[in-house]
Amino acid sequence: MLFSPRLLGCSRTCSRVLGLSLGTAALFAAGANTALLFPNWDVTYLLRGLVGRHALLGSGLWGGGLMVFMAATLISMMGWRGCCFGKSAPCCSILAALLASGLALLGALICFVTSGVALRDGPLCMSDVSSFNQTQAWKYSYPFKDLQHINYLYDRSLWSSVCLEPSKAVVWHVSFFSVLLCVSALQLLLVAVHSINSLLGLFCSLCEE
């Protein structure tokens, strides 16, 4: 029983670090999704409704951003023993830990899945949609979504030849959705660590009694 106060303090310190890390990751996710709404930092695409549906879904804003940030705040409060998260209420602490983990897990998972689908489908851009022997016709679509046996992510020659507008549309799309994918994967990892840390903290709280 002598080791439980030390482990409990370590668990609280871990909660503070995890809360700060998740909060920072949430800000990165929100920033990346915001950039996707303004291709080449040009607001006219958003005003004209020419921003891809994956970016408009805003999973990095409300999922990997707001939901994870709320969970990070709760986790930090637990680390600093705010509200009812003291040693006198271990059941309250574990319920708060489960709530924070569930909230962050859901937000990060939504952001991760959306980013993966967005990378698979490719960006919304102006491309040639004319069929064989027809006059060249350009319109906004997802030209990489219907490519057969070709993965545009590995063939960079397609990036500039298929999309006419916005300029560097593929680079913008791939760069920021890759950031979202990596950030949300990191968030999922931090949530897993937090779950283990919460169980350890509950065990130590019970040992103190």
Relative helix content? 55-70%
- Topology, number of strands: 2
**Which strand-content bin applies to the residues?**
under 5%
Largest sheet: 2 strands, antiparallel
What's the overall geometry? elongated
Lateral arrangement of strands in the main beta sheet: 1-2
End-to-end separation in angstroms reads 10 Å
Radius of gyration: 22 Å
Secondary-structure element string: HHHHHEEHH
Number of helices: 7
Mean pLDDT comes to: 83
Contiguous runs where pLDDT drops below 50 for at least 5 residues: 82-88
Structural class: mainly alpha
Question: Could you explain the architecture of this structure?
Answer:
This protein is mainly alpha-helical. It is built from seven helices and two strands. It has helices at residues 4-36, 44-47, 53-57, 59-79, 90-121, 157-162, 169-208, and strands spanning 125-128, 138-141. The protein has a two-stranded antiparallel sheet with strand order 1-2. Helix 1 packs antiparallel against helix 4 and helix 1 runs antiparallel to helix 7 (169-208).
